[in-house]
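Hypothesis: this fold can be encoded by more than one sequence.
Test: take the structure tokens below, design a sequence, compare later.
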């Protein structure tokens, strides 16, 4: 719980309790299978929103050059927390992810076999509690608004507004731009792709 005397970053529990208060419900003291149903639903929605935001490829969740070696079978299996990727450096070949197991496929050579490691720029899905505070705040407010709309569409209990969410987004994007000179326009692969399509 947030404190004026001992300030600290918000936790998953803090975020869920904000979501619950936003629909007029009492906070919970713990999360998990024993928590009340609305708290469990809030946890699921917070997780969905966290992955959705991180999928945008912001600086805070991008690894610029992750080197993945092939396994004993010559295959490269992507870790499950890689949300998207693109080859970089000398590894700039046509590589795609295939199947549920996340194996890389060399589309130019039509093979799953890789003779050496591949370097990728990846967007990583990180646990909520490890995220920077501005990012967590935006995710929490965005999830709180979605949660309130799903539990009580158009209800008077809706306290987090679109304006609150937008202000939080501006704050987290400002934070993210400071992480890397040039910010999103220069380093986000989605922006680069859009510029190339013009």
């Amino acid at each position: 719980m947030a404190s004026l005397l001992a300030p600290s970053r918000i936790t998953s529990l803090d975020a869920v309790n904000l979501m619950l208060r936003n629909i007029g419900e009492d906070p919970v003291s713990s999360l998990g299978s024993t928590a009340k149903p609305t708290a469990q639903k809030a946890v699921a929605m917070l997780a969905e929103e966290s992955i959705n935001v991180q999928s945008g490829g912001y600086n805070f969740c991008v690894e610029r050059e992750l080197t993945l070696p092939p396994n004993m079978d010559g295959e490269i299996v992507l870790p499950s927390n890689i949300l998207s990727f693109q080859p970089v450096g000398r590894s700039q070949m046509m590589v795609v992810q295939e199947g549920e197991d996340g194996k890389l496929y060399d589309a130019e050579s039509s093979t799953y076999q890789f003779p050496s490691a591949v370097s990728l720029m990846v967007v990583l899905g990180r646990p909520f509690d490890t995220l920077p505070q501005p990012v967590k705040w935006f995710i929490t407010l965005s999830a709180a608004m979605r949660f309130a709309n799903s539990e009580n569409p158009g209800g008077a209990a809706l306290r987090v507004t679109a304006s609150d969410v937008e202000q939080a987004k501006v704050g987290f994007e400002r934070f993210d731009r400071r992480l890397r000179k040039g910010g999103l326009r220069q380093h986000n692969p989605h922006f680069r792709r859009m510029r190339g399509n013009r």
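The first strand starts at residue 62 and ends at 68. The longest helix spans residues 133-151.
Hypothesis status: open.
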